[in-house]
Amino acid sequence: MSNHISQHSRIQRLTLATIASCIVLAGCSYSPPRWQHEIESGIPLPGTVFAAIAVKSESRRWPQGFVAQFPDGGSTIVVEQRASIYIVDTVTRSQKLIATLQPGRQIRSGFAVGMMGWSTDGSDCYAELFGQSGTTSDTPVVRQLFRIAVSGKSPAEEISSVPDNIVSPKNGEFDAKRRLGIWATDVSIQTWTPEGAPTTVLLRLDPISGQLKPQ
Question: Which domain holds residue 110?
Fold first, then answer.
């Protein structure tokens, strides 16, 4: 009889352990990957109708369940990151993808992208990817610099530094009468006229595909 009770007790313990494991696994689950897109930066080419726009895209898996979100809300798992660089014609409202940049392993958190300027002849633009070298914001910032052919006919080239004479327009200005506007979901232009300075939305970011689409 004692052997029967002991065996029954072991079965109960095994069953309880199995149930507990299932609860923990359910609590530590993550969602399927989801893409998030955001317009992060843009610069006009002075004296022209063209601008370079950078769109940041991240695919993440989000924590689900009580255990995954305890005690600080849980941490997402980064699946993929990229920056898409577009050349935009502000008159025709057309766009062309000229480069897709991916951060190196040295950028571990806080991934971001910024447009820096243009070559003096406007044939190249310069962009940087940056972020923290660790998982917290107090770790050193790491940067990657790229030269990108506006034609899109050659791959982006990672470089150690940008030229001293790059053209970097101030305040997003094409000229004295036109200014580029960059928001998380759209690209606009503000034009000064005798009647005022209206702002016109040129392109919006498709939240599903991450592409810029004319308005």
Answer: 36-52+80-214
Strand ranges (E), the chain:
34-44, 50-61, 77-89, 94-101, 109-118, 124-132, 141-149, 157-159, 173-175, 178-182, 186-191, 199-205, 212-214
How far apart CA 81 and CA 86 sit, in angstroms, is 17
> Quick check: is 191 in a domain?
yes
**Residue 126 backbone dihedrals phi, psi, to 5 degrees:** -125, 135
Question: Is 72 a domain residue?
Answer: no
pTM of the model: 0.83
Full pLDDT tens readout for the chain, 215 residues: 555 545 555 545 544 444 444 444 445 688 899 999 999 999 999 999 999 999 999 999 988 776 566 555 667 889 999 999 999 999 999 999 999 999 999 999 999 999 999 999 999 999 999 999 998 899 999 999 999 999 999 999 999 999 999 999 988 999 999 999 999 999 999 999 999 999 999 999 999 999 999 99
Does some domain include residue 25?
Answer: no
